[in-house]
Amino acid sequence: MSHPASRDMPLTDVASFVQHLQSSKRIVALLGAGLSASSGLPTFRGAGGLWRTYDATMLATPQAFQRDPGLSWQFYSYRRHMALNAKPNRAHLALAELARRNPAFITLSQNVDGLSPRANHPAGQLKLLHGNLFDVKCWDEHRCGYSRKNDFTDPIVPALALPTENPDSDLKAAAEKKKHALLRGADISDINVEIPQLKREDLPQCPSCKKNLLRPGVVWFGESLPEDVMSDVDDYFSDREKIDLMLVIGTSAKVYPAAGYTSIARAKGARVAVINMDRGDARELTKDDWFFEGDAAVIIPDILKTVVGEIGEFDDTKGPAL
Ligand SMILES: [Zn+2]
């Protein structure tokens, strides 16, 4: 559908963006699920996300964990496995490079997949709003307080190895089928493979209190965002200096929390650039903003090129910065 030309429509040309970028000092990026999808990851957040026959949003609660920690851990173990088998894309790498070159650039990520940390994004400039699949903490975090970060062990305990199909089946064909499903962002876990009933003692145990289970270090529905992260974000936004540019990547600028951060950044002088597949966003922007429609993994390295240089593909051999 074509819109009539309007003065209120956002800019779409790279040249005007690059000009503003080059004079920008304080820059905020907000990352959402679309960036993970560019790396081939299903994200499960939001309506309609299914894992096997379960509504993923129903599994992402403290109550679900309490009710059936084995089921919850199998869901998160699956997601850890998938995330480890995905690679940071060129947008993750370009943003990490921008952070290295510009200490006044901060990234707020809603993604829990560990792809930005694995892209060597400087940790002090990366604020993980919803936690990280690769952090684990004691179920009773207030009384015990145990946590550990960036534990990439897969599976995290032997009992959480993915249930496998009959080894005689055509693995290659199955892998190919899964690859195509992944590219569509679909859930590929095979609902025909039964989920084992796990014993509590086979699940990850807290090594500190030796009483509770460990849980994934992600923010579940009904939980508040991590205090240390939020305090850093507040400090950045309440600084007296203006904000020059806000990049909204792979998420809609219309919905919380992007909408909230975007309006604070605007109030501090920022112009906004949205990079997303969903063109619905364009209508919310002004003529001083930019809207780039398409795959963030392609667009981000392109529009940041004059500042970050040419960005290649992720090099596995360098390994993650832990
Ligand atoms: Zn504990």
TrEMBL record:
Gene Ontology molecular function: histone deacetylase activity, NAD-dependent; metal ion binding; NAD+ binding; protein-malonyllysine demalonylase activity; protein-succinyllysine desuccinylase activity
Short name of any one Pfam family annotated for the protein: SIR2
GO CC terms: nucleus
Binding residue positions for Zn(2+): 138, 144, 206, 209
Active site, renumbered: 130
Record keywords, A-Z: Metal-binding, NAD, Transferase, Zinc
PROSITE patterns associated with the record: SIRTUIN
Alphabetical list of InterPro entries matching this protein: DHS-like_NAD/FAD-binding_dom, NAD-dep_sirtuin_deacylases, Sirtuin, Sirtuin_cat_small_dom_sf, Sirtuin_class_III, Ssirtuin_cat_dom
Domain Deacetylase sirtuin-type: 7-310
Any coiled-coil regions, as ranges: none
Similarity comment text for this entry: Belongs to the sirtuin family. Class I subfamily.
Protein name: Deacetylase sirtuin-type domain-containing protein
Species of the source: Cladophialophora chaetospira
